[in-house]
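This part of the workshop introduces the protein records we will be handling. The structure tokens are whole numbers drawn from a learned vocabulary of backbone shapes. The record below serves as our worked example for the rest of this section.

===
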Amino acid sequence: MSQPTIAFLGTGSMSGAILAGLLRAGAGRVLATNRSREKAAALAQEGVEAIALEDEPGGNRRAAAEADLVVLGVKPYGIVDLAREVAGDLRPGSVVVSIAAGTPIAAIEAVLPEGVAVVRAMPNTPSHVGLGVTGVAGGSRASEADVALAVGLFEAVGEVLVVDEAQIDALSSISGSGPAYVFLLVEELTDAAERMGFTPEQAATMVQGTFRGAMELLAAEQLPPAELRRRVTSPKGTTERAVAVLQDARLGEVFDRATAAALARAQELAAN
């Protein structure tokens, strides 16, 4: 099915990024629900069949009934309740995709009919500009074709890794939360440039251009980042001195602790 009908039940930050990227890629029929009529009107201008739940309280059920692929786009605490709400309206053979952190597939499967497959996905926000990274895992009832359908959805907005569900939370701590790590580094280096006397505009140009250029160079050269770092770092030069300070800070240990904290939180969400 090259152009399935897709329903987004909830268009928050993450699901909204996926929806926007999908529209940029040229999707087929797309339905979307959200709480307000104002947001529904904005989505309608983008070619989405938008449903405002304040006007149509049963809008989630209607959208689910008309879709081949149903994306549960609400907060993790509401995922199972939303799945239960639309369970009786889903088409046999349809695929339900959850993008919620910490909600296991089994919890969603438990409230859905046997003929409905569940796929769990963990996208990241660069999907909004077509440069996302998404991990996808099929549930116990998901066939290869079901997983492929979900993969096709997320390939429209970036790269996709098919993994076991046991790896999804760990993946989330890297690629899911990863953009925030990058933005934090950009923020801190920009602040450092301003403290050196550059204007905010100059600092932003230097730092954002450097990050963008470095990643393009990494992609173009297809060499390990350690090798590219070595090429920038002249012996006894300025960069070598700066890198030594960063290495003394034991950044590897810092990232180990950060990703472990993210993983622990995902596990807490699953336990609750």
Remarks:
- The first helix runs from residue 13 to 25.
- The mean pLDDT is 93.
- The chain has two domains: 6-168, 178-269.
